[in-house]
Design a protein that fits this description.
single chain, 250 residues, alpha+beta, NADH Oxidase, 2 domains, four-stranded antiparallel beta sheet, 11 helices, 4 strands, 49% helix, oxidoreductase activity, Nitroreductase
Length: 250
């Protein structure tokens, strides 16, 4: 689109969507205190559905959402969130979890549930072979060493190639990056429904994982408190650095 301005894009067919999108984005704040107004179940269900429409690598969807409904678990979860007001006053408290161990299971599920039948051969090959080679590491990362050597050779001969996942940390970064995209969708969906949220990174992850029965391949990316914004729910004025400081045209 070159140097077109936003106003150039505000043609009649785009204006209503653009205005609504701006309103949702610009009114979203990290709200620290909520009212007693509940989030209806159908609203939360729709927000979670929209969250899972987030873009993600190879549609492997390495995320889970734990809505903490139990009163006892809720009390303990608030404590694990350092008793933050955003957790204490929230109508709903949600753990957003990345999974590093379900790529293979989800790849097989994609082939079973693929909407176009028969499943195209290139799709079968991708999920049965390419995805497996991308993630598999082998005992003591022995396969990762072979993958590293093959990747370097291909770069020398054919040029750029996507780096596969060599280590557990590579897979964890992949899972958490994708899951964070879904978390943002969730927060924007809540705002579009007239509610607010607060993403919280300040929590005791080992204690929270124990509370939720999570294992070593579950990684809590953030806790989200959600509800209706209280009058004193926003603590500070919003500001961002100047765009020219952080956007680089190269």
């Amino acid at each position: 689109m070159g140097n077109e301005t936003v106003d150039n894009l505000a043609t009649p067919e785009y204006t209503p969507q653009l205005q609504a999108f701006r309103q949702v984005l610009e009114s979203r704040r990290s709200v620290r205190r909520f009212t007693d107004t509940p989030i209806p179940d159908d609203v939360l269900t729709d927000c979670l559905r929209l969250a899972m429409l987030a873009p993600n690598s190879s549609n492997l969807q390495p995320w889970e959402f734990y809505v903490i409904d139990s009163a006892d678990k809720r009390k303990r979860a608030v404590k694990n969130c350092m008793n933050q007001n955003a957790a204490k006053t929230a109508s709903r408290l949600i753990a957003v979890v990345a999974r590093t161990d379900i790529w293979h299971e989800h790849a097989q599920q994609i082939l079973r549930e693929y909407p176009d039948k028969p499943v195209p051969k290139k799709v079968k090959n991708y999920y049965a072979q390419i995805v497996a080679m991308d993630f598999i590491r082998g005992p003591m990362n022995v396969i990762s060493v072979a993958k590293w050597g093959a990747t370097q050779a291909i770069r020398q001969v054919k040029g750029p190639i996507k780096s596969p996942y060599y280590t557990f940390d590579d897979v964890k970064n992949w899972a958490t990056n994708n899951t964070a995209l879904a978390a943002e969708n969730l927060m924007l969906a809540l705002r579009a429904h007239g509610f607010d949220s607060c993403p919280m990174g300040g929590f005791d992850e080992p204690a929270m994982k124990q509370l939720l029965g999570l294992g070593g391949n579950h990684h809590i990316v953030m806790m989200i408190g959600a509800g209706e914004r209280a009058d004193n729910g926003i603590y500070e004025s919003q500001f961002r650095f100047d765009q020219t400081q952080l956007v680089h045209h190269v």
